[in-house]
Request: fold
Amino acid sequence: MSLQIRSGGPYPSKAAGLGGEPTTVPDIPVCGVFICLYLCFAATNMTIFQRNRRRGKKFVLSGVLFGFCMARTTTLVLRIAWATRPTDVKIAIAAQIFVNAGVLIIYIINFICAQRILRARQPTIGWNPVLRTGSKILYGSIGGALIMVITAVVLSLYTLSPHTRTQCLDAELAALTYLLTFTCLPVVQIAIALLPPRSKDEETFGEGSARGQVIIITLSSGLCMLIAGFKAGAMWSPQRPITYPAWYDSKACFFVFNFTLEIIILFLLTLTRFDKRFWIPNGSNQPGDYTRLREQIPFGSEMEPAHFGPGIAKEANYFPRV
Reply:
């Protein structure tokens, strides 16, 4: 006899998931600590963005990091709300969606920065029209993967059909596997930039050494690969009942492989001043623009050290090299 599907929902999931169901302790105190950290990085990156903008050197990726921090703050607030209302399935759905959605911003930032390294080291390859078109397709596919995850999560909790839930799981597996592949692309771009013989048209951009740029994005991409790999691996593993979760479904793994690694990435990008290291002149759209346009408007030419307060003026244009 076929299963009769009743209308309504959402229905609580009976399968174990990453982090499990939140509880007042330890979830609320831990989420509170992470909220403070994300808000600090949000304020820092917005300050950097506004200062650069006022000097005519707008670095949009700093504003994007601000948006990422605020999205992660919302994620943690939703988890706290879920902990205080454990039977509210709609809050649970929203919390799960934000967990999967926020980190995509970091994936894209790594891709863009690696692309700039490739275009500087190997202009002929990096500015190839095929790669430029491919990059746009990849950006669109990231949105498609996110839509797949959201649709699958919501639909799986609004149906009792085993067949539909299996299809939703397949969609999630496909999306998370694609996102894992996407996190590897910055490393591939850096390899393409470094392995071939040096181009006679090689350029530089931003401040600091080219080696420092490579190290920063390689480390950030490696951490993102760890995050995406853990999520994909957990999703590909056999599902367990909510009463018998696996080790990778524990709260410790949830907070470490999501928020802790993301905070490390924020430390890496913010404290090494990636806004200076990866800045390129506005209007750069072909080989030679990094050098030609930068010579017209060198980064830091409009800086006013007095704005940084007493005792810091001499170090206003300095940031640590890697």
About this structure: Residues 52 and 279 are 10 Å apart (CA to CA). The two ends are 66 Å apart (CA to CA). DSSP finds eleven helices and no strands in the chain.
